[in-house]
Design brief:
Blueprint: H1 2-15, H2 17-39, H3 41-46, H4 49-74, H5 77-96, H6 105-137, H7 148-155, H8 157-178, H9 183-192, H10 195-204, H11 212-217, H12 226-266, H13 272-284, H14 286-300, H15 302-322, H16 324-328, H17 331-358, H18 366-394, H19 401-425, H20 433-447, E1 467-474, E2 478-485, E3 503-508, E4 515-521
Antiparallel strand pairs: 1-2, 3-4
Helix pairs in contact: 1-6, 1-7, 2-6, 2-8, 2-9, 2-10, 4-5, 4-6, 4-18, 5-6, 5-9, 5-10, 6-18, 7-14, 8-9, 8-13, 8-14, 12-17, 12-18, 12-19, 14-15, 14-17, 15-17, 15-19, 18-19
Amino acid sequence: MAERIKGVSLIFACGTALFADGYANGVISSVNTLLTRIYGSDQIEAHNYGTTVRSVTFAGTMVGMIIFGWLSDKMGRRFGMMTATGIVVLFSGLSSASKGAHGSLGGMLSMLSAMRFLLGIGIGAEYPCGSVSAAEQSEGPAISKNAQHRWLALATDCMIDSGLVVAAFVPLALVWIFGEDHLRVIWRLSLGLGMVPALFVFFWRLNMEEPECYKKDCMKHAEIPYGLVFKRYWASLMAISFVWFMYDFIVYPFGIYSTTILDNITGGTDSLTVIFGWNVVINLFYIPGTTGGAFVLDYLDPKTTLVVGLVLQAITGFIMSGLYVQLTNHIAAFAVVYGIFLSLGELGPGNCTIVLASKTSATAVRGQYYGIAAAIGKTGAFVGTWVFPPIINVFGGPKTMRGNTGPFWIGSAFALFSAVITLFFVKPVSHDGLVAEDRAFREYLEAHGYDTSMMGLGLAPDVHAETMQIDVEMDGSSKEKWERENLIPTHSEGLQDLVEGGKFKVESKDYGHEMLVGDGDVSD
């Protein structure tokens, strides 16, 4: 039991930082509402703040995903995770301290936008570092085989959604505490409190080691054969990236329904407690889907769950579009259907894109593979925010029935199309699939003439490992086995205290790979 708890704890130590990322992404919406209340919409729009902060956060997230995808593979998962968490802590704090020269509003908004860009790098970095590491820890020996996908989803997508819920609740709680006459304190505290979960995870990760499969099969000290990698993985990468892109793309139009619910339920009130309170309720709709879907993953498998989730979500979207008038006249029923829709999104693409993207490539390139898929997916959200407003206008504008329903027909159709792409092009994953893929990847590289002897950490010069088995042959007449901890003898002088004269042969059996490291005279 203790080993199982430790194994699950490692998964959450890797993935829980996504809670901080969900919080940072979610809280900015409430902060923007507060800034508009304080300074007025005309002043905020005069500085083009809304467009700027949305664009720079996206850009920062993309930079983080791509750069840290490479760093995760070449520098190590732990290095990437610790750096990402540090960035989130630092720039969450600096965001809350944003201030313009001589108290200027433009300067403050510019600093806030700059800090959001840098924070976005940390947010993006967690995807190819934390999520990938959590996937690798999910197949550890202490994790039940039939619970591997479940723990991964609970430690990643569920953490993001939980962060969104807390991000909606914190401003509400601060309004309760300080009242609506102290909004400047509330928006700064709302941003600054994002440091708390990130700091907690930072210290939780301090004593972590690299996942075992990274120790065995990384290319930290080897040149990555990108040509062979592309040839093996381009099709599966494009398929999962497309599905991720389409999911994030269609999330935008369906998000419009939250405004419909709020306007109908609240009667267009200006009360922040009412607005923030219902924002918490809407974000809570995500939780049943992501938690319930996590348990479905190990029974249906991630690919099947993704197809089922997309189809059911599309059907629900069609129902909401076709019965828009009737549902908006009965807002309780509308809210229920909308909640089901959001939950299905998390059950399907929300959980499954993370699991599939993190488990369909080899350890040596998993960070870069995942980073590219996540970046393309995030591009979908960015494109959606710019494309759908013109689409709404083409359908008649946001105040017309066609303007409100048209984008949902399009979004639901895209969901069905994504289900078809998944069915025919997305690679399925199984339990213990990472080990099998790493083995197959090695065989693939060797078949194409690539020397795999430098893969893993155990064979790198001057790198310490846990245990090395050393076979020593003396003049061909005797043989002794030596067990040394925390030593890889990469030069003959490393054996002087083992053998006096004669021949030696050193074989590395660490991490399950047996290959020749050195062979020669001790006197060399």
